[in-house]
Amino acid sequence: MNQPTSGLRGLPVSDIFTRACDGDRRAIGRVLSIAERGGTDSIELGELAHKLTGNAHVVGITGAPGAGKSTLTGRLAATLAASGRRVAVLAIDPSSPVTGGAILGDRIRMDEHNYGTGTFIRSMATRGQGGGLAVAVPAAIRILDAVGFEIVIVETVGVGQIEIDIAGTADTTAIVVTPGWGDAVQANKAGLLELADVFVVNKADRPGASDSRRDLELMLDLSDTSEWRPDIVLTVGTEGDGVDDLITELARHRQHLADAGQLEARRRRRAQHELRVRAGDALANRLKDALNSAEGQSIITAMASGGASPASSLDRLLDELYPN
Amino acid sequence: MSDTTNEKPLRIVLAKLGLDGHDRGLKVVARMLRDGGLEVIYLGLRQTTDQVIAAVEQEDADAIGISMLNGGHLALSQKMINAINEAEAGVPLIVGGIVPEADVEKLNEMGVAAILGPGSSSEDCVASVRAAVAALA
Ligand SMILES: Nc1nc2c(ncn2[C@@H]2O[C@H](COP(=O)(O)OP(=O)(O)OP(=O)(O)O)[C@@H](O)[C@H]2O)c(=O)[nH]1
Ligand SMILES: [Mg+2]
Q: Are A2 and B51 within 8 A, CB to CB?
């Protein structure tokens, strides 16, 4: 029986990363897994990668389930690739909270137009709640940036705070809605509209697309657009209609960010968000250890028995957390 | 549930090779594997072996699951195995579908890691994938 061997097995992280930078797609796939998993290897990888970042245009594509995000992303990526740009897609789908498994079905909508174009597509599962995703996604974006992709498109479903936060930390965020009042109203409720740098009314082959455009214009008229007024692009993802307009708009926004010195501000926002999540994780771990320690247990006992007030117990616990 | 932050769930690319027209069976397998805790990268219908390999590389998948039209399994499995070897992808191939008894051994000899018949349970599917991945590790 044949026992195929993996060409990357046993290689140190730095070697795999070097190969990834040379364009070895399996190595890119592997370093993304390392970044996603966390742990020591990912720290080493982060050290190698972060120096090479800052060149990619990170585009978030978000909106209601089924709005056509993947179809549109596939077209967008293929069109950009055809004009010679190096494009990567990060497509994020939810994991089952019960089993931890996931069906990652975005790729099926993208492959048709992207296979053989050089576009790199990676599906990513949310892998449970909490800070995991908020750390893993920026880490994956940094890798894709570092290995030389010029445009990184991140698709997330616009439900759930973490997904929305991720979309909001892109350089440029496109919100995808579909014809029909319900969708725009829903997007508004979910807090998506404030995030928009570009609006896309996809499925514009369906009735009501111009109504959606008008509704969005009305909403924009009521908000502060002194810095930037998002344009509204009508697309038919299945046919590719409007994709050129979308590309123009994404580029125009990127230029605006550069001209207004906002690129830096966006990146700060992204860094702050990630740092807060990372710090939250780290502090939560420390707190857990402190509470489980002998001193922690004795603090709990003292407070539970009424022998120590909550405030003095907290002081003791903080001393335990931050000795000196 | 235990803390799984640092545990990578197994990832499998699922595809149907060849020209047949529906993927109901493949979808059922996808759901069973998801329910068993796997991450399933679903490629669906009419995939070529090269497309499957490209997906495996980009997705850093641990295994490939294919199903195909009754009758095409020997030729298509061999093509898939060849593609895996050529790419040095280092992943096991699991074949699903109706495979006549007489062909089971041929597939095994070819290097197919597991064969899942139509009656396979969710547990069977998950256990087969896990065992196949473990055997190559
Ligand atoms: N009529 C029409 N259908 C479209 C259009 N774009 C996408 N679709 C269809 O809408 C369905 C959903 O498309 P997807 O691209 O998977 O949507 P999505 O937003 O990525 O879905 P999730 O990732 O599941 O949230 C598919 O059946 C597409 O073929 C469009 O412009 N017009
Ligand atoms: Mg999608």
A: no
